[in-house]
Amino acid sequence: MTLYQAFTARRGSEKILLDAGALLVGSILMTLAAKATVPFYPVPLSMQTFVAIGLGLALGPLRGGLAIMLYLAEGAMGMPVFAGTPEKGIGLAYMVGPTGGFLVGFLLQAVIAGLFARHGRDRSPLTTAAIALIAAAAIYPTGLFWLGAVIGFDKPLLALGLYPFILGDVVKALLAAAVFPLVWRLIERPTV
């Protein structure tokens, strides 16, 4: 059971509205995460991977994935939802650029995290950190392949698209390990 399922188990006919609202809120969170960066070394820290993984943990693989797909569809339609938009372009032109594979990777992150959450693996800090690291790594195969296809496989792809982001992924995994088990404890606390 995911956080979302635990929350909506108490609801009845409002479920369709809650589902639609969860997807919309998820896409908004992805947009906000794309627009805000935290100063960090060696590159500024975007919280998009944290949000993508968090959507999977909170909403499960289906709803988490759908929230990311809504975010990607908004971007494809030309809405300035991605990092660096509209300055670096918008729509499909932006999506086929060097970061396109990483955008696809967000979907993989949400689905992978959601699959683990569906089976209750996100209840302890240790397993949540492991889930977040596994899901964080899922962005790199599509991201690096796409980056190589756009800029050339003869370029230092690991130095451009992997190494600078590893430390940030570890920090975000630790943040997920602190946040999600705590939220579970709050939801599962008996009401008086």
Distance between the termini: 23 Å
Major sheet: 2 strands, antiparallel
Q: What fold name goes in the CATH topology slot?
A: Arp2/3 complex 21 kDa subunit ARPC3
| Radius of gyration over C-alpha positions, nearest whole angstrom | 17 Å
Q: Give the class-level CATH name.
A: Mainly Alpha
Strand order in the sheet with the most strands = 1-2
Q: Give the class from helix and strand content and strand pairing.
A: mainly alpha
Summarize the amount of helix as a percent range: over 70%
Strand content: under 5%
Order of helices and strands: HHEEHHHHHHH
- Overall number of domains: 1
Q: What are the segments in which pLDDT stays under 50 over at least 5 consecutive residues?
A: none
Secondary structure tally: strands: 2
Please tally the helical runs, counting DSSP H or I stretches of 4 or more residues. 9
**Shape annotation:** globular
Outline:
71% of the residues lie in helices and 2% in strands. The protein has helices at 3-8, 15-35, 48-76, 91-95, 100-118, 125-137, 139-151, 157-161, 163-188, and strands at residues 37-38, 45-46.
Secondary structure blueprint with pairings:
Layout: H1 3-8, H2 15-35, E1 37-38, E2 45-46, H3 48-76, H4 91-95, H5 100-118, H6 125-137, H7 139-151, H8 157-161, H9 163-188
What does this structure look like?
The protein has helices spanning 3-8, 15-35, 48-76, 91-95, 100-118, 125-137, 139-151, 157-161, 163-188; strands at residues 37-38, 45-46. With 192 residues, it is an all-alpha fold. It has a single domain (3-188), classed as Arp2/3 complex 21 kDa subunit ARPC3 (Orthogonal Bundle). A two-stranded antiparallel sheet has the order 1-2. Helix 2 (15-35) packs across helix 3, helix 3 (48-76) crosses helix 5 and helix 5 packs antiparallel against helix 6 (125-137). The mean pLDDT is 89.
